[in-house]
């Protein structure tokens, strides 16, 4: 049952990423020449507009008062920094850097409204379910989890605003999975079975491939990706010590803390017509946290967090079926690896 709850959490995380990405941009999955290049999250970023061909900027003559850019040598694969999509999503490399900051801010606003919607949902559920005993320690752990959520989103948005999406987002995914596994094994006495270890080992590269990860990022890309991953890892790890008798109240504290952490990044507000879907998206994301928390009460945290973190596959699959996106060979290999990892992790 714990494995099913964790997989259900992954589906909810993926739906949250997909919808949030659509709200942050125009079409899901940034694409180059119509082919998706980066991933959706997050995290905290899925949907994106289709970018012009890479050589479009070269075909457009520069203004008369600006010198032409010297031709790149053959084999130069350097990218311009990619712009964000949303917590956990994708973006395309764009020559218009002036648009990156507004997009990053738009993603932060979507995430903020989503966390508000999630807070309202979990508050209602907590009142409905009740709790035998709500202790201060559990509330504190819940608040720490929410701070981790906020930190992860803040660094993710900063990173995808000034760095390479294809490095920042996958790196945050890997760190967000690997760190909880290490904590579970070293400090919580988690002892996954040999098959589960094989699933964990396979899930990590599968996540990178599904997310369209690339090597060769700068120090800035690495730093922001790792810091975002640490935040998301804290979101998962801090919920492990929560007393089940506290019910859902620690998650109320978690969502409230995430709202306060993201608030300094918010600039402006969403158009009124986009507020309901943003709130609904956040509710789905919060439902994912609820399912993950329930999963950790029946399954090892090291296993539950890996299963729940396979959510990047959901936006990719939705892009294929709903938006008629094309699957890259790398993503196909990643999806296959994720499927095998699920079987290994769910094996008795």
Would you mind describing this structure in some detail?
The chain is built from twelve helices and three strands. It has one domain (2-50, 101-346). By secondary structure, the chain is mainly α. The chain is 61% helix and 2% strand.
Q: How do the SSEs run, as a string of H and E? A: HEEEHHHHHHHHHHH
From the spread of the alpha carbons, the general shape counts as: globular
Spatially, the strands of the biggest sheet line up as 2-1-3
Helix/strand-derived class?
A: mainly alpha
> Any idea what the radius of gyration is?
20 Å
The number of distinct structural domains comes to 1
Number of DSSP strand runs: 3
Q: Major sheet: size, sense and barrel closure?
A: 3 strands, mixed
Q: Calculate the terminal CA-CA distance, rounded to whole Å.
A: 11 Å
Estimated share of beta-strand residues? under 5%
Roughly how much helix do the residues carry, as a percent range?
Answer: 55-70%
Oligomer: single chain
Poorly predicted spans: 26-59, 72-99
The total count of helices amounts to 12
**Average pLDDT for all residues:** 79
């Amino acid at each position: 049952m714990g494995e099913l709850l964790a997989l259900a959490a992954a589906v909810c995380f993926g739906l949250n990423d997909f919808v949030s990405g659509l709200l942050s941009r125009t079409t899901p999955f940034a694409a180059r020449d119509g082919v998706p290049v980066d991933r959706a999250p997050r995290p905290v970023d899925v949907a994106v507009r289709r970018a012009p061909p890479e050589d479009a900027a070269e075909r457009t003559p520069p203004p008369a008062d600006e010198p032409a850019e010297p031709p790149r040598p053959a084999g130069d694969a350097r990218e311009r920094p990619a712009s964000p999509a949303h917590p956990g999503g994708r973006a395309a490399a764009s020559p218009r850097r002036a648009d990156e900051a507004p997009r990053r801010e738009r993603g932060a606003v979507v995430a903020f409204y989503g966390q508000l919607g999630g807070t309202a949902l979990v508050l209602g559920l907590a009142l409905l379910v009740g709790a035998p005993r709500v202790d201060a320690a559990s509330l504190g752990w819940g608040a720490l989890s929410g701070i981790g959520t906020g930190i992860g989103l803040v660094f993710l948005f900063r990173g995808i605003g000034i760095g390479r999406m294809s490095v920042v987002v996958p790196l945050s995914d890997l760190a967000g999975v690997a760190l909880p596994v290490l904590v579970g094994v070293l400090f919580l006495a988690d002892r996954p079975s040999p098959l589960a270890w094989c699933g964990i080992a396979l899930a990590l590269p599968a996540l990178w491939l599904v997310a369209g990860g690339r090597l060769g990022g700068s120090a800035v890309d690495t730093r922001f990706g790792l810091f975002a991953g640490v935040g998301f890892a804290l979101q998962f790890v801090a919920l492990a010590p929560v007393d089940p008798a506290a019910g859902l109240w620690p998650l109320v504290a978690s969502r409230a803390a995430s709202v306060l952490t993201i608030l300094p990044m918010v600039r402006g507000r969403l158009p009124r017509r986009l507020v309901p879907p943003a709130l609904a998206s956040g509710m789905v994301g919060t439902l994912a946290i609820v399912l993950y928390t329930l999963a950790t009460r029946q399954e090892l945290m090291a296993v539950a967090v890996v299963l729940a973190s396979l959510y990047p596959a959901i936006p990719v699959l939705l892009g294929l079926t709903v938006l008629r996106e094309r699957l890259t060979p790398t993503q196909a290999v990643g999806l296959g690896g994720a499927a095998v990892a699920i079987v290994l992790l769910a094996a008795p």
